[in-house]
């Protein structure tokens, strides 16, 4: 399995285990597993895109300006 697919699986697992979470918290948890992976942040974004395209994620926006937060949850 490719790294993007593995990351997508990890994102899904984190959200399945812990429920709705802030985007940056999910990112930190997933990237912790891929410390030595080149371009890991770009690949994480691709994994999020993969799950979004498969309609597996909901994006929940809260706040404005400095108080803006993006949350992820499974559909």
TrEMBL record:
Top-level division of the source organism's lineage: Bacteria
For this protein, the record's Gene3D superfamilies field holds: Winged helix-like DNA-binding domain superfamily/Winged helix DNA-binding domain
**InterPro entries listed in its UniProt record:** DUF2582 (IPR019707), WH-like_DNA-bd_sf (IPR036388)
Q: What is this protein called?
A: Winged helix-turn-helix domain-containing protein
